[in-house]
């Protein structure tokens, strides 16, 4: 491995410092291309830089210990978490940054990285190219990429294992970038990012435990799955769980794969493809859907052209309760998720637009069957403007297999949030109130109501939250006599002031 031209630093890295450094690296592209385009370059370079620094650090240690035995060193390096072939390291690229062809060299390095790591990184960089005309003509592109390499080559971004300490720092920096890219991506942000407080809420309520298999069939950049994994470790101290996901957009799938590795989540299976048209999380025979203990997702709201044309002949029988409408795919994702729940332990949380709660026709029939089968457990109304790319309020639907009663808890959390300039946020107190209410499973005045099956049936299986949680605030009664007295007092005070003002004007020579 080539030696680094950057001084090694032994002090532990600070999370704020690395966040600031990687965000400043975006300055290379600002004003040249859109954030939605350059986010892939920044996030990929962070991934490459981290695995290169860790690899080089380990290589240097082995050289010190076995300097006269290159064959042994090579054999030991081949067992590292990631293998870096010659020319594929960040530092190989950094040392050649002043030469022409930076885009081509980076693409070749990423391809070499894929080849050397087998199935682990197979096709991860297939949808990401640094040698693209989006960066301008060759001279401009080469300069931009030189600056990018120099940004990541700075001392502050020395990401060696000794300095980083744990994967959390790198994973947090990656999440920091994804969040900020989502904030600037407008309508497309929802394709790859779920706000962290919503992920925290879902992971806490679904309570994944040791041994669970956890799935997100519309996983975006994987943040919700990662929160579920962190919840298992927090509650049990165990890493005995597995994460599964599927993502339709190639570049977003690549982000999810890198995100998993940067958070230390090596026990994952994330597939690239359309979950509804072509589910890929199947058993060994490829004939049946895999089933999971926990299934959770924030799928695209009311997706048009979701695969309606083939749903009636679905080989996996996901739409036996009915086929969702052609232009709204919400119940397509819900139906898929329900069918992937394990019979004994399955529990599920899905983020949906409010129309899912009350729209009639085919959606109404599917909703009625889900309730009659005693699968729906809780409905949580969320505030508006929580999600990037849309200002509409959303809800969380919680489903469970093997429920102990047939009641449904309704929680109206739509009015409790922290206002933001562009996005509202759920505070820790807001989240804790939802969780405690969910656990208590009882009525809370103007906040929660535990409805019986008969009550829901009387409402024609309409789940619109105001039908169950009365948040109406009566206006205070107005004392008309007191208002009349106050009006007369103000009128008299005004007449006195006008008389006083007229006197002042007369003394100054104004008026008659």
Mind explaining what this structure looks like?
This protein is of the alpha/beta class and 512 residues long. It folds into three domains: 15-184, Ferritin, CATH 1.20.1260.30; 187-467, 3-Layer(aba) Sandwich (Rossmann fold), CATH 3.40.50; 479-512. The protein is 43% helix and 9% strand. It contains 18 helices and nine strands. A nine-stranded mixed beta sheet has the order 3-2-1-4-5-7-6-8-9, with helices on both faces. Helix 8 (167-183) runs antiparallel to helix 11 and helix 9 (196-206) packs across helix 10 (223-236). Mean pLDDT is 90; it is low at 1-10.
Topology, pairings included?
Layout: H1 15-24, H2 35-66, H3 70-77, H4 90-95, H5 102-116, H6 138-152, H7 161-164, H8 167-183, H9 196-206, E1 213-216, H10 223-236, E2 242-247, H11 250-262, E3 268-272, E4 294-297, H12 308-311, H13 330-339, E5 347-353, H14 355-358, H15 361-372, E6 376-381, E7 394-400, E8 408-412, H16 428-440, E9 448-451, H17 453-458, H18 480-507
Parallel strand pairs: 1-2, 1-4, 2-3, 4-5, 6-8
Antiparallel strand pairs: 5-7, 6-7, 8-9
CATH architecture type of the largest domain: 3-Layer(aba) Sandwich
What proportion of the residues form beta strands (DSSP E)?
A: 5-15%
Structural category: alpha/beta
- Number of self-contained structural domains: 3
- Sketch the topology as an H/E string, one letter per element: HHHHHHHHHEHEHEEHHEHHEEEHEHH
Average pLDDT figure:
90
**Strands across the major sheet, in which order?**
3-2-1-4-5-7-6-8-9
Spatial separation of the terminal alpha carbons: 99 Å
Overall radius of gyration: 29 Å
Number of strands: 9
CATH fold name of the largest domain: Rossmann fold
Number of helices: 18
Estimated helix fraction: 40-55%
Largest sheet: 9 strands, mixed
Give the overall shape: globular
Low-confidence stretches: 1-10
CATH class categorisation of the largest domain:
Alpha Beta
Let me know the CATH homologous superfamily of the largest domain. Answer: Vaccinia Virus protein VP39
């Amino acid at each position: 491995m080539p030696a680094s031209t950057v001084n090694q630093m032994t002090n532990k890295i600070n999370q704020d410092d690395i966040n600031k450094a990687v965000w400043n690296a975006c300055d290379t592209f600002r004003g040249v291309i859109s954030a939605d385009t350059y986010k892939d370059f920044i996030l990929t370079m962070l991934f490459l830089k981290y695995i290169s620094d860790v690899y080089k650090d380990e290589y240097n240690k082995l050289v010190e210990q076995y300097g006269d035995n290159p064959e042994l060193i090579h054999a030991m390096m081949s067992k590292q978490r990631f293998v870096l072939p010659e020319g594929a390291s960040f530092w190989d690229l950094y040392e050649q940054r002043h030469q022409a062809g930076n885009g081509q060299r980076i693409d070749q390095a990423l391809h070499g990285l894929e080849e050397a790591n087998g199935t682990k990184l197979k096709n991860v960089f297939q949808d990401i190219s640094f040698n693209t005309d989006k960066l301008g003509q060759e001279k401009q592109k080469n300069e931009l990429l030189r600056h990018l390499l120099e940004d990541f080559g700075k001392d502050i971004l020395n990401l060696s294992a000794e300095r980083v300490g744990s994967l959390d720092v790198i994973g947090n920096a990656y999440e920091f970038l994804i969040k900020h890219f989502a904030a600037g991506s407008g309508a497309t942000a929802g394709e790859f990012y779920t706000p962290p407080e919503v992920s925290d809420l879902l992971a806490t309520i679904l309570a994944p435990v040791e041994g669970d298999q956890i799935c997100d069939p519309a996983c975006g950049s994987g943040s919700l799955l990662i929160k579920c994994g962190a919840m298992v470790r927090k509650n049990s101290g165990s890493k005995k769980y597995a994460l599964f996901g599927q993502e339709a957009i190639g570049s977003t799938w690549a982000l999810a794969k890198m995100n998993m590795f940067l958070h230390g989540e090596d026990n994952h299976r994330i597939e690239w493809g359309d979950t509804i048209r072509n589910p890929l999380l199947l058993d060994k025979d490829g004939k049946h859907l895999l089933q999971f203990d926990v299934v959770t997702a924030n799928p695209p709201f009311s997706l048009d052209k979701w695969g309606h044309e083939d749903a009636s002949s679905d080989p996996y029988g996901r739409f036996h309760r009915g086929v969702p409408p052609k232009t709204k795919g919400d119940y397509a994702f819900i139906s898929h998720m329900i069918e992937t729940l394990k019979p004994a332990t399955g529990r599920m949380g899905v983020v949906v637009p409010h129309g899912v709660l009350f729209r009639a026709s085919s959606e109404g029939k599917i909703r009625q069957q889900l309730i009659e089968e005693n699968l729906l457990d809780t409905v949580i109304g969320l505030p508006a403007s929580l999600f990037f790319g849309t200002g509409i309020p959303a809800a969380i639907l919680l489903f469970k297999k093997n429920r102990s009663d047939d009641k449904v808890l309704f929680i109206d959390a739509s009015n409790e949030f922290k206002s933001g300039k562009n996005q509202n946020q759920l505070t820790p107190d807001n989240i804790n109130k939802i969780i405690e209410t969910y656990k208590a499973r009882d009525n809370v005045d103007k906040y929660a109501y535990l409805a019986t099956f008969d009550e829901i049936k009387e409402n024609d299986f309409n789940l619109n939250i105001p039908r169950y949680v009365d948040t109406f605030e009566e206006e205070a009664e107005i004392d008309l006599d007191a208002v009349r007295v106050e009006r007369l007092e103000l009128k008299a005070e005004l007449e006195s002031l006008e008389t006083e003002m007229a006197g002042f004007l007369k003394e100054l020579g104004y008026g008659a």
